[in-house]
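# nightly structure sweep
# worker-07 picked up a monomer target from the shared queue
# config: single-sequence mode, recycle default, output format = structure tokens
# input follows
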Amino acid sequence: MGEFMVFNFEQVHNYYERLVFEDVARMFSSHQDFTADMLADVACVALNRLPARYVRHDVDMMFYLTEHERHAIEQAMAEALSFAFTFVGERAAKRQALG
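# output follows
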């Protein structure tokens, strides 16, 4: 008989998800005209501009990063979020002007 193995992938996640969600929530104070749906769109646009980095534990990723890599991640996130807020805001303004 074959051996039965249980797979546990529940901990696997994209490292950037939590960071982006937290930053979008934090940045809401500067974008209070954004609806909840727009903020979700911002998170999606930002995440799609960042590389996927799957981990089981966030602390493991941070432990192995150099200072240069940490700075590069912070810079990439800042650029992705800036782009996403602008993109979603402009798209919403165009929709409002048309409708």
